[in-house]
């Protein structure tokens, strides 16, 4: 029979962790993904065509593939004139008007002032022949080949309302699927389903994670494939045997290669996978050559997938990368010394902290519209409070290593792997920051480039906060607050900044008419109101499911509390460990 000293703490954990409601996780997971979809439809209904970051460029890439069937070449390929002639029929964000001023593109205020209330398109005479480089030719063709059939089926350039909205909806679906996969992984790496649900709420409500995917671009596909690769890498770490280890490594390598083909920022997954392999090696200690063969299979999987893109880049640019900043610096004869000198001018502590605690939170389209400043400040404060939990986790691991069970994570390697992923994407964005600052004089790195790591950053923040020695009523405070401030920031940003800006600061009735004019009929005002109503209903359902789980847990624990109280009064030598056994 175990002694009280060896079983007491373990029994305390089991005592607090009663079995969950049988269908709690399945219901909540469906509701959280439904929340992402509803929010996505709201964003699609209010976001004008080409308001997504560099969106007209991505549409131009698809049109180039339709016309030629070949990959564009950065610095040579231009935007198709047929698309340019249609772009001027829609208002554009200010950054786009700077690039498209020569073809007659105007911003929202100018567009609505000149158009009036008659709902007529701009005259074709507004188009003037002009050469616009397709600078998004820097990307692989993977996403654009996948999007091309949908683009053609919905009318292509001749029906941009339908074709743009259709490709956006496809990308929202990819983001929702990425959330679904992330939630499943989360359930496996977090000890209790209720804790996984709390972190999942913060992920499903995050505004920029959705906004990044609600546009025509390769980012949503990159996030989806990166999520699969991250799931496979974490599964590699958590293995309990070394059978078919090489096959697992090859699968992970192929997924990483596909993620890189979708978005080059996912090169950050290569060092992350190497770290996961090292953790697996330390934990599992595979026999013989199984570990080296797994590493070899992982590397070969990556190379087999990306080799065609690498060969294309070497043939056309003489470089492994087609990133436009790298090519500009290469043409100007910049060297590693120039890169190091530029890197020394960057305020790295400020850049990194601002990336994760404010910039990677809310950005209102290519117009870079903000939400309420207090929302941003509150989000940053919650991130800091969550990260402060690492002081406690560090003390637990160092001073009382055997009691890691007080953490919400299923094992010590889980938060370490998540931190490694965040650091790898931070390094990738840091590289882009240096290259872009050297090329353009100032950094042009979008915070959304780190979107694949965002769910796992929230796992680190919320998980460490819930590992603090707080009462059961205070532990959910940080993840619930993260979800709440995310939804509040989205509402204030959309209705306080985005809709007024996109509609020329018109009255609400006129603004809704103008939004509907910009969209296909199936994304008009009725769809917007229906999506909002459905979102509210889903939030209410989440609250009810959560309430039922909390009440059910209290009922399940009540008999244990009474029996535990009786055991404590049975005598000084009767321990909890003895009662349990």
What integer is the average pLDDT? 87
Order of helices and strands: HHHHHHHHHHHHHHHHHHHHHHHH
Proportion of residues in β-strands: under 5%
Helix/strand/pairing category: mainly alpha
Largest sheet: none
> What share of residues is helical?
55-70%
The number of distinct helices, counting runs of at least 4 residues, comes to 24
- Radius of gyration, Cα only, in angstroms? 26 Å
Which shape, going by the Cα principal axes? Answer: globular
Cα end-to-end separation: 7 Å
| Counted beta strands | 0
Low-confidence stretches: 1-18, 116-126, 571-581
Topology readout:
Blueprint: H1 4-16, H2 24-46, H3 55-68, H4 81-87, H5 94-100, H6 108-115, H7 142-153, H8 160-189, H9 193-204, H10 207-211, H11 219-237, H12 245-262, H13 269-284, H14 290-317, H15 324-331, H16 336-343, H17 348-359, H18 373-399, H19 413-440, H20 454-466, H21 477-502, H22 508-518, H23 525-568, H24 576-580
Helix pairs in contact: 2-8, 2-9, 2-23, 3-7, 7-8, 8-9, 8-11, 9-20, 9-21, 11-12, 11-13, 12-14, 13-19, 15-19, 16-19, 18-20, 18-21, 19-20, 20-21
Q: What does this entry look like structurally?
A:
It is a single chain. With 581 residues, this protein is an all-alpha fold. Helix content is 68%, strand content 0%. Helix 2 (24-46) runs parallel beside helix 9 (193-204) and helix 20 packs antiparallel against helix 21 (477-502). It starts with a helix and ends with a helix. The model is unreliable at 1-18, 116-126 and 571-581 (pLDDT under 50).
